[in-house]
Amino acid sequence: MFALKILRNLRNGFLVGIIAVGFSLFSVAQAHSLKDKLFADPTNIEVNLAYLQQQLAGGNFKGAAATLQRVLLLDPSSKLAKVLYAEVQLKLGNRADARLILQQLLADKSLSVEMRARAQALSDALEQSEKRLSIAGSAGFAGGSADNALAVPKGPVVLFNDTEIANSSDEVAEPFVDFDGVVSFSYKLPTYRKRGLTAGAGAAGRDYIDVNMADSITGFVSFGYNEERGLPWSFNYSAYATDVSGHPYNAGQQGIFGISSNLPRGASLRASLRVGETRHFKYLGSSAGKERDSEGVGFTLTYAQPIGGLPIPLLLSTSLGGDESDAEVDYFSTQSVSAGITARTRLADINLSLTADFLATEYDAPNTIISSKTREDERSRASFSLSYKLPPQYGAFNIELGGFVADTRSNIPNSTKTLSELKLGLRHNF
């Protein structure tokens, strides 16, 4: 019965997927139309450039390289074609060809300021990619407001021992500030096959302005290994510990094994398997949280497909996942399934991301203090982010506006709630 409810709620997600397939078929038809025009008039630079744009949007970099070679034969002086050709060669892993073109471009004194900046950025990226050891990091700060910050249930009543009592809790909006910082290291092993090691550490926290009962800070570390072969794979281990209002709250660790595959037309498929555990400390003198100590296992399957033939670049990704958690007390043990779809695009200099996802959770046993029913939740969520990177003369900071609305429906009124938040942040990568 629960599975049928899950499938019913996933139906809308599949309809979105069908729409995405329609877009894909439309782009294929447009690609054939452009290809026909190109065969009819291969020396037409405008048609070549239109076909090139479609190839780049679809991730067909080998085809794009061939198109750019044809454009350069038609117009050997085109600086833009040379910059794009160097960029494509970098994506194909042909570093020697990319370096030669970039050296010629940067030595050209007639190169415009914009083209020189683009060529220099590619040259810097090339040099960075050839370093065995690289260090990167980021720091961010954001402020916003959270509606129903304490996650109180909505509705006129809640349950206690199967008895309905009036819900006297008020939903309150709380302003907050978020902060985070992370540093990561990557090392390319000196082997013929591309292999790498990664490590990272950081902290993230939230401080509510008016109340401090939910202020939190989390520290974390991670270690990983990745290898590129026919099917690239990776393994990552991470651990974290969280303090709430200055008191130890919980800690956990997780291992994730992932494998991916590059598909035709720039699509990709990734599968990951994760195993982890969570442990709770005695919080404010109470050991009640220990009942939620748990071990869990889960999987996620993600498919991504660039949609060509549109006036703007568009990347659609869909995911399907499942998790099972075994807690110390059965009414905290859960099974869940999730599905989501994300659309990413770029409008002028602004990156836009829209996500809709769904999570269905069933608990193993009823919490009889509340109700004799076994709890079943269904959460729908919509989120967005808009980001813009300032020019280098202004510090190259990323400005991001983001937010979400999440609605949880449950057969237990105590767990039915709506959460939302909106925040504006500043981030610097180094």
Report on this structure.
This protein has 430 residues and is of the alpha+beta class. 25% of the residues lie in helices and 47% in strands. It folds into two domains: 2-129, Serine Threonine Protein Phosphatase 5, Tetratricopeptide repeat, CATH 1.25.40.10; 133-429, Porin (Beta Barrel). The strands form two sheets. It has a 14-stranded antiparallel barrel with strand order 1-4-5-6-7-8-9-10-11-12-13-14-15-16. Strands 2-3 form a two-stranded antiparallel sheet.
CATH topology of the largest domain: Porin
* Residues in β-strands, percent: over 45%
Query: What's the mean pLDDT score?
Result: 86
CATH superfamily of the largest domain: monomeric porin ompg
Euclidean distance between termini CA atoms = 51 Å
